[in-house]
Design brief:
five-stranded parallel sheet; 17 helices
Length: 472
Amino acid sequence: MVLNRTDFQKFFNPGQIAIIGVSTGDYKFGGMSFLIKLQDGGYAGKLYPINPKAKQIRNLKAYPDLLSLPEVPDLAIVCVAARFVPAILEDCARIGLDHIHILTSGFKETGLEDGKLVEERIVAIAEQNGLKIIGPNCMGPYCPSSNLTAWGAIPGLSGSVGIISQSGGLTQRLTEYTCSLGIGVEKAVSFGNAAVLDSTDFLEAMAQDEKIRVIAIYLESVKNARRLLQVAKETNKKKPVILWKGGESKAGAATAASHTGGMAGTQKLWEAFYRQTAVVRVRSMDEWVDAIMAFSLLPVPAGKGVFLIGGGGGNSVACSDTFNREQFEVPPLSESGMDFLRRSVPIAGSIAGNPLDMWRTFIDAGYLSEVLELGYKDPAISIIVVDRLIPRMAYHFPDLADPTPEIITYIKNRRHAKPTVFTIDSDGGDPNLADTGTRLRAQFCKNGIPAYPSAQRAARALYHLCQYHNRP
């Protein structure tokens, strides 16, 4: 099915929403929770709760059915039990409501014949009436710019990332994760069983969406692998597509079948897919977020020469090994750069070169700026990675003002010169250190400077960035 601009508008910026199946009792997941979240998130359009036994719900007039509504809504969210869904879809068709999100589960993902037959009925009704259906068994559309945030980060953060996911839980976590780092989402969709609209339909639409610069996908199965391959290949030429494929193992594939009722496909098939499309392959939530951050915030690197700035001899050795494993080079600096370092770096207890082991980079923003300029001007250097230690009792640091704001201001003015990222290691079990590290990374990221919790994660994200821009 082809989704056009009008379809996207109605799914992601609806003027009116009918929520079918809003309870009147205690709070529970479903129609009531979606209604509450839409109200709490500031959705400004009209909300029509549907419940045949209610006159009013949460200060809104309730309606017994879709046929009694004063107008045709742009979007319906169906939250009734699975066996009642076909009749609701017939009513949708009757009034001309053709954009539908089925939140309800209990279809083919159950593995039961009854669930499979009801889902087949849904498909038949959609085909007969031209209904565009997201789901069933999914969280549906999410769009912070229109305050359509019934799930995910609330309030959401608008940005340039598009998300297409078979899993509602993973999509929700991704929107929260990126939001905490200051990386906003333009549109996200959790599509579940994909009875009518599949991942490829949304990928094709997001490829045409000028507000979306990076597309992140989580897939467990796909109905038409050939079409997905063709669309992904073409889309990836225009904007990066970052794909996390679930169900690679036998156990994962079996779980995927019970999650969304789809077959995960053979590993050989997906290996061929990655080769032919050159989409960015990730295998965890952290790797997904790290890659999104790199593609969203960094300019295109000219090469693979990395300048590693930090402190500690062992740390410098380990960092060099980490980046070498990800196919980066740690080249010698230019003679003029080395001359500066020889004059400013003590002979004892430090290393003048690349990597640079120099404690002063942690406490002196002016000195760090001079060191960064060496990398920006050095033709052998394409990427700069700065290790940022968190001051604490274990380190013999003088009690000085935090240089972070000054460092951020400098890099914001120069960040387009060459990709510049920070690593801020706060692992190790200390909750205070972890909290400080999380807040410090967010401070950098929210100012457009990627900050990773380890050299390994930074190197992997930069690897993806370089591989994408060096693809054939």
